[in-house]
Amino acid sequence: MCSYDRAGLGWSDPGRSPLSAAANAESLHLLLRALGIPLPYVLVGHSYGSFIIREYANRYRNEVAGIVLVDPIWPSEWVQPTRELQRRLRGGVFLSHVGGLLARVGFVRVCLRLLTGGAPGLARRASRLFGSEASGVLSRLVGEVQKLPAETWPLVQALWSQPKCFTAMARHLAALPRSAGEQATCGELGDIPTLVITGGRQPEQCRAEQQRLAALSSRWRQIVAAGSGHWVHFDEPELVIEAIREVVNDVRCAGKPTLAPLVNVKSD
Predict the structure, then answer these.
(1) Are residues 180 and 55 in contact, defined by beta-carbon separation less than 8 angstroms?
(2) Chain-centre distance for alpha carbon 30
(3) Do 91 and 172 have their domain in common?
(4) DSSP 259
(5) Half-sphere exposure of 248 toward its Cβ, with a 13 Å CA cutoff?
(6) Per the domain annotation, does 78 fall within a domain?
(7) What is the mean pLDDT of the chain?
(8) Has residue 229 been placed in a domain?
(9) What phi and psi, each to the nearest 5 degrees, are found at residue 71?
(10) What are the helix (H) ranges across 21-119?
(11) Which residues constitute the domain of residue 172?
(12) Contact, 239 vs 197, CB < 8 A?
C-alpha cells in the first residue's frame, strides 16, 4: 500500500499546470508509472479524492482492479452550487489565502503548538482576531488532528505550517466546480468492485447520492459508518482498513466476486 501528496500538499512541490480532477488523475498516472508499481491498482480516495479516482478509472480502466471511496463528495452538488455553497466556497478560498499569509509569518505554527500542547484557550483567542469563522475552522481542523496518535501531531503541524499547503488548498477549492463538471464525461464503472463508505452523521441526501456513486459499478457495496462524520478514517479507521481488505480480497478471488449490491450499516 502507498499514499502520495498531491502537488502543493504535504511534502510535494507546488503544481504549475491548471488544477482539476483530470489533471490530478494524469499526475497520479505519471507518478505510478515512474515508481514502477505493478498493475492493477486498488484505488482509495477520501472526499475530493473520489473525483480523481473516477477520472483515473475513466482514462485507464484496465489499470484499476477495485475502488474504495471514503465519504466522497458528489458532482451534482458542485456543478451548479447553490448560493450558500458558493458563499462557503468563496469563504474557504479566502481563509486559505489568509492561512497562507499567517503560515508565512509563523502564526499558524504557534497556534497549532498551543492548541495541541495544552493551551488551546490562548490559541483560540488569538485566532479570533481574524474572525469567528476562521477561529471555528481552526478549531474543527485541530479537533480532527487530535484523533490521530499524539506522536503524529508534530508531523501534521510541520505540514500545515507551510504556506504552500494553504495556497494549494485555495486552488483546489477554487477549481471544485470545474472538477465536478469533468465528472459528467466519466462513464459507469462497469464490473470494477466498488465500495463506498458513508459517514453516518452526514445528511440523508449525502447517503443517497453516495449510493448512486457506488451503483455506477455492477459490483458495489455501501457501508454506513454510524459513528463517523466526514473524516471516517479518523473516527473509525478499522472500518476503512476492513473495507480496503474486502475489495482486495474480491479482486484476488477473480471469477468469484464477493461484492454484490448491498447497503450495510456498521455501528461504532
Answers:
(1) no
(2) 20
(3) yes
(4) -
(5) 10
(6) no
(7) 85
(8) yes
(9) 40, 65
(10) 21-35, 49-59, 76-79, 83-104, 107-116
(11) 83-176
(12) yes
Residue 160, H or E segment? helix 153-160
Question: Looking at residue 213, which CATH number applies to its domain?
Answer: 3.40.50.1820
Instruction: Give the end-to-end CA distance of the chain in Å, rounded to a whole number.
Output: 25
* Number of domains composing the chain: 2
Confidence grade of residue 157 (pLDDT, cut at 50, 70, 90): confident
Verify that 33 and 99 share a domain, yes or no: no
Q: Which long-range contacts (CB under 8 A, 24 or more apart) does 76-84 make?
A: 76/180, 76/209, 77/180, 77/209, 78/176, 78/177, 78/179, 78/180, 79/177, 79/180, 79/181, 79/183, 79/184, 81/177
48 and 110 both lie in a single domain: no
C-alpha to C-alpha distance for 232 and 70, rounded to whole angstroms: 7
Q: Would you state the cell numbers that stand for residue 162, as one nine-digit string?
A: 507551510
Q: Report the range of poorest mean pLDDT among 57-66, 115-124, 187-196, 219-228.
A: 115-124
| One domain, residues 88 and 61 | no
Identify whether residues 63 and 87 lie together within a single domain.
Answer: no
Length of the chain: 268
Q: How many CB atoms lie within 10 A of CB 18?
A: 10
Q: Which of residues 23 and 268 earns the better pLDDT score?
A: 23
Q: Give me the pLDDT at residue 219, please.
A: 92
Q: Is residue 93 part of a domain?
A: yes
C-alpha cell at 246: 474486502
Q: Write out pLDDT tens, residues 93-105.
A: 988 888 888 888 8
The helix (H) or strand (E) run that includes residue 215 is none
Q: Which of 176, 206, 223 is the last residue of a domain?
A: 176
Q: At 205, list the grid cell.
A: 441526501
Same domain, 148 and 224: no
For residue 45, give the nearest of 263, 224, 213 by alpha carbon: 213
